[in-house]
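Our collaborator T.R. sent over the components below with a one-line note: 'Predict the complex.' Nothing else. No constraints on interfaces, no templates requested, no preferences about which chain binds where. So this is a plain run: every listed entity goes in together, and whatever single assembly comes back becomes the starting point for the next discussion.
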Amino acid sequence: MPDRPALTETELLDYAQDVLPPEDRAALEARLAEDPAARATLAEWQRQDGAIRALYDPVAQEAVPDRLTDILRRAAAEDAGAEPPRRSGRRGLIAATLAALALGAGGGWLARDLATPSAAAQSLAARAMGAYATYVVEVAHPVEVPASEAEHLTTWMSRRLGHEIRPPDFAAAGFSLMGGRIVPSDQGAAALFMYDNAEGQRITLYIAPQGAGQETAFQFAQEGTTQSFFWMDRDLSYAVVGSVPRDLLRRIALEAYDQLI
Amino acid sequence: MKVLVEIEAAIPALRRYARALMRDRDRADDLVQDCLERAVASRHLWRGDGPVQAWLFRILINRYRDLQRRSPLPGHLVAIEDLVSEPAQCGGQEGALALREVHEAIARLPVDQREALLIVALEGRSFEEAASLLDIPKGTLMSRLARARATLRVLTGRGTGAEVVPGPSRGRR
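Returned assembly:
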């Protein structure tokens, strides 16, 4: 028999998963017959699978704890009691806000300085990413004021920051507002809005007053998997933070920029 | 509402996967609870594109990753010296793996390898489904899977895991 190339991991994985067409499978089996190491590996993988299923399959047979089924009971009761909240009303409100904010959105900001972030900008990114890390993992109280109290949220944030602050709408990017909270910044109170998408990914928008009156282009920071686009514009500075693909985060940041001008 | 029925039907599989990921029963159920609350809260937004169960797994995995970012548990990274000093009990190749040992070894796998191994070996997902649920390319999934299996083999004292040539495919480190 001529020497055949040793079986690769990819080939073995495909074989073990049984996804090969019959011809390829037969050819691979012929090589497997001459490759004791690969056969041993396959056998070991089967033992691993057996052990994993023996360990955890029984979990699926356990009675489901009440605290989990209760979530569905409550939801079913809500649905039975009232029509689900219609989105259109909220959409209309947001559309009106959008129209009001669209005025004055100028071009040309991309051409602004792309220099190294200033100390103030670096501090902004660090504050915003710190706030994200603190609250995005929060299960019970991710936000202080939920999106359902939108008017209260807007009034409260605007009063604390001394500027009119409205959360932008990221529905086009698949994210909806969960709510907001007040967090610290170098210049006093800052607003932190949290959004999530249907798959439970969360992003935050951090808005802080800035004393310097700087204007900057978009700048980018990354720490581990957490990424941020941030910029300064007249009286306020902004940072969008998340652990989502960079293109998506950039799109959200652009939405925020367009809507917040 | 139909989606609620489908969510409820997915609970056993979600609990199984969460338990294998987290080990601790209460923390695993906390993760499932969080996942269910989020799913139920956005049930009216769900557009019905694809199976409910896949949607729930994506939520669960995203929340799991959030938790890992906050507090990567000690022991989830495998130190090199642990890998080489593992007693080589190669004598019992044919025997069944000790479940306890496998349980410990899975907990010591790096998070990305553990996610990949369990979604395929425990949940029986195809490579394509698994890659989509974990939001990674298929090549990356396969290389994580191969590394997970090799690491598991070493951690359970059953060889070096190096008998097989790494694949020619991309995605292999």
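Summary for T.R.: Chain B has two domains: 2-70, 80-155.
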